[in-house]
Design a protein that fits this description.
about 450 residues, alpha+beta, Outer membrane efflux proteins (OEP), 4 strands, disordered N terminus
């Protein structure tokens, strides 16, 4: 039951989309997931970190190397005796090959600590990947609703320009008939130019939002659909607990804390003896004056006991312990930050919902008032300024609705991101999801009692 309402989030988010729209919210997020270079770069980073575990395991395995030697030479000999002296010379080649083996037997627990450390680092990298994935989808969702908001604002501004243009014609007509003043005309012209300025700004904002949309999704926005609002749990404490449990940032930080704990074991292993087996097989021959061949083989056990290092190893242990403390404090600080973010976003979301309700009511009232003032202006009981003010109130209300709708969705998506439920899996996006564990090495668990390395 713990995850039930998250499934409801996703179903509510994507249920009920009209098939008349060419580019749904779900399709846009799927496109962002599939084409994001930032996400692909982080996936590559996970694969890089996977290699740390391979390196850790290799530190306890058999090492073998093969060496060969081929050479040539010249020997000039002179010998002396009572009968006189004699000289001779030889030339020839020498060849040798050697096989060297090294098998660590005991390293003070270094290998098991390295494997635990690498496994924690891998899990942390996977959590960071999910955090990047959420941010990629959040950026895409933000770009999507930014376009919707700016399209509505631009449409409202275009309508305002059209209304004020007709109003200016009406004012000029009345002025020619002697029923208005030059001031009425000037006021109408001023408001019309102000509305044109607003339209230009709205157009610029819309172009900027479309550019961000293309950056995230990879195609131009056309006929976007309005996503459904999402119902979140009533209590902020539920969201806070979910964030503590599922935030990928917190998860990554906790795994780094575990990796720091394992690094202490790595540092302590340098204070302990090490034991290993060394094997060597060498075969060689030369064809100088007398052809000769020799083969030798030996195996030795090597025990190394650290005595004095000038305090270097002890220093590394102390440093590793401080790193562990640092990671713990960083995790605690991040927990407090997540709690604050949830509380702030929840407050912003509730405020935006209230603003949206009032703004929608305001649009209805402002529309009614505008129509009434226009009628009264036509019969001479209202001034041109009254009409201009009523039109401005209607425009402000329409813009307020567009912004409140945008903010309500944005704060909801940000809350979902904070509690770790704005990834491809939670949103059930129609994509082939990347599996970071598909080709990854098997992660280490708690070392078995019989594991000496």
């Amino acid at each position: 039951m713990k995850h039930t309402y998250f499934l409801v989030f996703a179903l509510t988010l994507f249920g009920g989309h009209s098939t008349t729209f060419a580019q749904s919210f779900e399709e846009a997020l799927a496109s962002a997931y599939q084409h994001s270079p930032r996400l692909k770069a982080q996936q590559a980073q996970v694969r890089i970190v996977n290699e740390n575990l391979i390196a850790a395991k290799a530190a306890g395995k058999l090492n073998a190397s093969l060496e060969g030697l081929l050479g040539g030479g010249y020997v000039d000999r002179t010998s002396a005796s009572v009968l006189g002296s004699a000289s001779s010379s030889d030339d020839g080649t020498s060849r040798s090959a050697g096989l060297t083996l090294l098998q660590p037997l005991y390293q003070g627990g270094r290998v098991s600590s390295l494997k635990k450390q690498a496994s924690s680092q891998i899990l942390s990298a996977r959590a960071e990947l999910r955090d990047v994935e959420q941010n990629v989808l959040l950026n895409a969702a933000t770009a999507y609703i930014d376009v919707l908001r700016d399209e509505k604002i631009a449409a409202a501004q275009r309508n305002s320009v059209a209304v004020l243009s007709r109003q200016l014609i009406a004012v000029k007509t009345k002025f020619k008939l002697g029923e208005g003043t030059k001031t009425d005309v000037s006021q109408s012209e001023t408001r019309l130019e102000e509305s044109k300025i607003g339209l230009a700004r709205a157009g610029a904002n819309l172009n900027s939002s479309k550019a961000a949309f293309v950056r995230e999704m990879g195609y131009q926005p056309e006929e976007l659909s309005t996503p459904k609002e999402i119902s979140l749990p009533a209590k902020t404490s539920n969201l806070t607990q979910s964030a503590r449990n599922y935030s990928p940032r917190l998860e990554a930080s906790r795994y780094l804390e575990e990796a720091a704990q394992s690094s202490i074991g790595v540092a302590k292993s340098a204070l302990k003896p090490t034991l290993g087996l060394n094997g060597q097989l060498i075969s060689g021959e030369d064809d100088f004056s007398n052809f000769s061949r020799a083969t030798s083989a030996q195996i030795t056990a090597q025990l190394r006991i650290p005595l004095l290092t000038g305090g270097l190893r002890q220093s590394r242990v102390r440093a590793a312990k401080e790193v562990r403390q640092q990671r713990r404090f960083e995790t605690r600080d991040l927990e407090y930050s997540v709690d604050q973010t949830v509380a702030n976003l929840r407050g912003q979301l509730e405020a935006s919902k209230d603003i949206l309700i009032s703004s929608r009511k305001q649009v209805g009232f402002a529309q009614s008032a505008f129509e009434g003032v226009k009628t009264e202006f036509g019969v001479g009981t209202r001034t041109a300024l009254d009409v201009l003010n009523a039109e401005q109130e209607l425009l402000d209300a329409e813009i307020s609705v567009a912004r409140a709708e945008h903010d309500t969705l944005l704060y909801t998506y940000q809350l979902l991101t904070t509690i770790g439920k704005f990834d491809a899996r939670s949103l059930q996006l129609p994509v082939v999801q990347y599996d970071p564990g598909l080709d990854a090495p098997k992660l280490a668990s708690v070392a078995s009692p019989t594991e000496n390395n």
